[in-house]
Amino acid sequence: MRPHEIIKAIDKLSLSEKLILVEDIWDSIARSNI
Q: What integer is the mean pLDDT of 9-17?
């Protein structure tokens, strides 16, 4: 893999990790509001 391809892969991974983190936060908020 070329360096820029590795950077793209890391960007995609960190983006999906951020989405998972946001989902976890929303789940926590939803549970606390019930």
A: 84
